[in-house]
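quick q for whoever's on today - can somebody do inverse folding on this one?? i tried earlier but teh output was garbage lol. tokens:
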């Protein structure tokens, strides 16, 4: 490991909230000397005191109250990571260090920046001779502490300088199984394995890919919630019984961090009333910080039908209308469906299939979105590598991701994940059950927007003919928007001189 340098700390970090503190400790555990700075000095003092009392690598972490001293304490080219609230806070923090930088120094934004901000910042800093990397950091505080998935975007030269640090601190996966290596402790990081980081592309590519990761996280979580809701409302299952189902599912192709924590959550008792389950005590309104919304906005901007991902965002919005929903529940009637009389075991298998098929569609949408974005922003993304670095450290880590890596390694030009032989077979096998589940939810009045919109996407994508012939005719009728013909070459546009529509006359 790198030795203490005589000419300064290996790296500096600005922003000592939960993510920054944990990333500092991760770097220190890997032998890097880290200088830290925070706008509010007392928080930095508390952190240094905490390190001295608790952390084996505390002697590698040094705090600076003055930003100039902080910058001057770094080895050249200086590398400074920012883990600051995204937006204006990040700009302010970066601008505070700029006066003390030299040409060739490198700023790294590890926050959840919007990729457009990253493109802008990269341009602005380049003009000043400063290198800039926008790196997605996923995995929450535990990931930051013991191994996150890191998605850096920026120049190749800047990546070369950051790489030794990023590859050391990233999560590691077993080369053979593709599963995350776990068991790190303070002062004892994971050794060996494949690091969950790779250079994603120039300027905003890393932050864009991190944003899509979060969009996929939204839909993954929503799909699990719908499976839970159907087991609860259709099959009348209790949380502990559902916990066992999720734990069982986690032994197979659905194996993932989110399924695993769902099994744990469902068996958790309420700390305030230990005879009840915790999940029943949690109010059914979800918050959001914006990355799911950004993903959906980007899909609309780029014209990519990521409808299931958007449904996951809307489902959170609908959940937030708690008072309206409570009022409507007493006045808007649902169907008078009979109690579900089929086999519970068979129904659980149907739900599993619906979840898996919907998940494939949702990931297909995420990867299609990235494929379009690379044209728009002039990036060259490697989808096999992206799936590979999501196998560990991040919230969507799953066995499934190895299959996505395999799919793109087998066919670099794969147009849609659903067309890969492995995923195609999985959908063909599960679709009958998936359709039954969607039909059952409609029949019984159970809201399952992600299951049903994923199915609509699948059926739409595999349709050689959609009803938009009629839609285009309507557009030509009222707005002379023209249409193409089935019996003529693409790119030729026609228009009919429609008769003035007969408007109903109001008789007085
Ligand atoms: P926050 O997003 O809550 O940001 C808090 C930090 O930003 C503090 O150090 C604060 O300094 C600093 N800061 C602010 Br606010 N405004 C500033 C300004 N004008 N100038 C300088 N510093 C300023 O912290 P977090 O939850 O640790 O997240 C850090 C970044 O990582 C964010 O961009 C977040 O989106 C991203 N992220 C978070 C997670 C997660 O699980 N929390 C996961 C992945 C990525 P102060 O102490 O002086 O107020």
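ok took a stab at it. sequence:
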């Amino acid at each position: 490991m790198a030795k203490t340098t005589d000419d300064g700390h290996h790296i500096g970090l600005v922003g000592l909230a939960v993510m920054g503190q944990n990333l500092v400790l991760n770097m220190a555990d890997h032998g890097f000397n880290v200088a830290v700075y925070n706008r509010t000095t007392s928080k930095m003092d508390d952190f240094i005191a905490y390190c001295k009392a608790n952390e084996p690598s505390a002697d590698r972490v040094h705090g600076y109250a003055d930003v100039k001293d902080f910058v001057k304490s770094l080895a050249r080219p200086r590398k400074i990571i920012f883990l600051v609230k995204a937006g204006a806070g990040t700009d302010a923090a970066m601008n505070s260090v700029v006066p003390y930088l030299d040409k060739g120094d490198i700023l790294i934004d590890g926050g959840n920046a919007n990729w457009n901000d990253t493109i802008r910042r990269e341009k602005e800093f380049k003009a000043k001779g400063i290198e800039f990397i926008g790196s997605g950091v996923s995995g929450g505080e535990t990931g930051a502490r013991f191994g996150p998935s890191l998605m850096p975007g920026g120049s190749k030269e800047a990546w070369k300088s950051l790489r030794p640090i990023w590859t050391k601190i990233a999560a590691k996966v077993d080369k053979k199984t593709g599963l995350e290596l776990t068991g790190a402790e303070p002062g004892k990081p994971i050794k060996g394995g494949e690091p969950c980081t790779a250079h994603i592309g120039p300027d905003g590519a890393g932050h864009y890919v991190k944003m899509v990761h979060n969009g996929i996280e939204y839909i993954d979580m929503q799909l699990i919630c719908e499976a839970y809701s159907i087991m609860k409302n259709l099959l009348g299952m209790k949380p502990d019984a559902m916990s066992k189902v999720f734990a069982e599912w986690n032994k197979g192709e659905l194996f993932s961090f989110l399924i695993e924590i769902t099994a744990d959550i469902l068996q958790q008792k309420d700390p305030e009333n230990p005879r009840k389950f915790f999940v029943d005590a949690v109010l059914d309104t979800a918050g959001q910080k914006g990355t799911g919304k950004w993903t959906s906005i980007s899909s609309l901007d780029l014209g990519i039908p990521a409808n299931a991902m958007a449904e996951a965002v809307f489902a959170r919005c609908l959940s937030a209308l708690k008072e309206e929903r409570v009022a409507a529940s007493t006045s808007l009637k649902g169907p008078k469906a009979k109690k579900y009389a089929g086999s519970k075991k068979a129904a659980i298998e149907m739900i599993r299939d619906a979840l898996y098929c919907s998940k494939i569609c949702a990931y297909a949408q995420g990867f299609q979105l990235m494929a379009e974005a690379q044209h728009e922003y002039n990036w060259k993304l490697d989808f096999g590598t992206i799936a590979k670095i999501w196998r560990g450290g991040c919230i969507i880590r799953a066995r499934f991701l190895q299959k996505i890596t395999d799919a793109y390694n087998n066919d670099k030009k794969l147009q849609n994940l659903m067309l890969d032989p492995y995923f195609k077979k999985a959908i063909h096998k599960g679709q009958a059950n998936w359709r039954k589940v969607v039909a059952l939810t409609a029949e019984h009045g159970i809201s399952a927007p992600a299951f049903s919109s994923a199915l609509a996407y699948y059926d739409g994508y595999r349709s050689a003919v959609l009803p938009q012939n009629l839609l285009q005719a309507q557009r030509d009728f009222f707005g002379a928007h023209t249409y193409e013909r089935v019996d003529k070459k693409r790119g030729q546009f026609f228009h009919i001189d429609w008769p003035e529509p007969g408007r109903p006359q109001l008789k007085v």
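fwiw The longest strand covers residues 131-138. also The mean pLDDT is 95. so keep that in mind when u check it
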